[in-house]
Amino acid sequence: MVWFVLLLWIVEVFNLVTGHALVRFGIFPRRISGLSGILFAPFLHGSITHLLMNTLPLFILGCLVLVHGRRTLFKITPFIIVVSGLGVWIMGRSAIHVGASSLIFGYFGFLVFRGLIKRSLTSMGISILTIAVYGGLVWGMFPGVPGVSWEGHLFGFLAGILCARMDL
């Protein structure tokens, strides 16, 4: 997770130097040119503040996913990125969507529902811990804050639940 977060910061420094020109590679719903954003959006952020807000939750939730094994992390991460990105591309409002939030919400959904589905002591403990610390994330899946991709949050969460359900 350290390397992944470091990569996000390297991309953000480059993005900052270019006047945030990379943001144009985010997801732009229902435009063919916006399809490539499905893969790039989680690595791009609108500002340093945006990345700062995503760094700690991504790191902590990613580490909690790692408790289930590296293989699990490596399987669910691309799945969440692609499924949430497709959801935003198909149903998102007309705006450029960027940020690792979809991945954060995907990890959150996975961790919560993995405990409910697996019912092992470890999975349930992680699920309870995740809800206790990050339960407030649920409110981010509803429209309300201008400029925030609640669609990315919602589809990330749903992709995470799907990962738990598919036992990835």
Automatic annotation (TrEMBL):
Transmembrane segments: 43-66, 73-92, 98-117, 124-142
Domain Peptidase S54 rhomboid: 37-165
A GO cellular-component term linked to this record: membrane
Localization per record: Membrane
Keyword annotations from UniProtKB, A to Z: Membrane, Transmembrane, Transmembrane helix
GO molecular function terms noted in the UniProt entry: serine-type endopeptidase activity
InterPro entries documented for this protein: Peptidase_S54_rhomboid_dom (IPR022764), Rhomboid-like_sf (IPR035952)
A Pfam family per the record: Rhomboid
Protein name as catalogued: Peptidase S54 rhomboid domain-containing protein
Source organism of the structure: Desulforapulum autotrophicum (strain ATCC 43914 / DSM 3382 / VKM B-1955 / HRM2) (Desulfobacterium autotrophicum)
Lineage: Bacteria, Pseudomonadati, Thermodesulfobacteriota, Desulfobacteria, Desulfobacterales
